[in-house]
Amino acid sequence: MGKVNFQDKFSKFDEHWTPKVIAEMNDYQFKLVKVQGEFVWHNHSDTDEVFIVIEGCLKIEFAEETIVLNAGEMYVVPKGIQHKPYADEECKVMLVEPKGVVNTGEADSDLTASNDVWI
Amino acid sequence: MGKVNFQDKFSKFDEHWTPKVIAEMNDYQFKLVKVQGEFVWHNHSDTDEVFIVIEGCLKIEFAEETIVLNAGEMYVVPKGIQHKPYADEECKVMLVEPKGVVNTGEADSDLTASNDVWI
């Protein structure tokens, strides 16, 4: 695999809430996603999940608080914790998580995306 | 753990080639490192290693080629592959790798750093 340029990869798709795999490290994947509006409440019962904001502003709502992430900031959502990402304007995000993780976790949703689409 | 701001963390240290842990996801760690000059040839026999350039320009020399990474670019060094990172000017990098990985891999070097220092 060659090097990956984030903005080059982001230029290849427009849809929201559909993570695209850009790299694998051991059994983990790095994914890029564009988000805007509200996602669904969900959790991942068997893994932590990393959010890194590349551009824009991402909010992650938890039961007791809301985390606000700007470009150059990251957050680790612990496994099993209910959370709902949302963004007032389009935001570009990198996710890091084990291969096979579904974006909506254990929630049943129209926003569930294929989980191994490379770009 | 709260959110992590990369530039805030980088402002807390000056030394080169000494990765600092900023976050854990399952049994993986995210580390920030400032690099300048030449590192040593080394490999990690049991894990891939991710380099993400936050600021500046990082070069990674391999037996047959040299990869040049600028800010907003990443590269996955496959396990077991000999490589030597270097940077003409100071460069800020994020590493992602399993907890416990030593920076110089199996090479014996004065550049070997403690591998679980948080910042």
Tell me what you see in this structure.
The structure is a homodimer of 119-residue chains. Chain A is mostly beta strands. In chain A, 4% of the residues lie in helices and 47% in strands. Chain A has 1 helix and 8 strands; from the N terminus they run E-H-E-E-E-E-E-E-E. Chain A has one helix spanning 6-10, and strands at 4-5, 20-25, 28-38, 49-55, 57-61, 66-70, 73-77, 84-98. In chain A, strand 2 (20-25) and strand 3 form a beta hairpin. Chain A is globular. Chain A starts with a strand and ends in a 21-residue tail after the last strand. The A-B interface holds A 1-7, 22-26, 28, 30, 47-50, 54, 67-69, 72-76, 79, 96-98 and B 1-7, 22-26, 28, 30, 47-50, 54, 67-69, 72-76, 79, 96-98. Strand 1 (4-5) of chain A pairs antiparallel with strand 7 of chain B, so a sheet runs across the interface.
Primary descriptors:
homodimer, 119 residues, mainly beta, seven-stranded antiparallel beta sheet
- Helix-residue proportion of chain A: under 10%
Q: Which structural class best describes the helix and strand composition of chain A?
A: mainly beta
Shape of chain A: globular
Mean pLDDT of chain A: 95
Please work out how many helical segments of chain A DSSP would assign.
1
Number of DSSP strand runs of chain A: 8
Summarize the largest interface: chains and residue counts.
A-B, 31 and 31 residues
Architecture of the domain at 18-98 in chain A, according to CATH? Sandwich
Question: Quick gist of this model?
Answer:
Two copies of one chain form a homodimer. The first copy, chain A, is mostly beta strands and about 120 residues long.
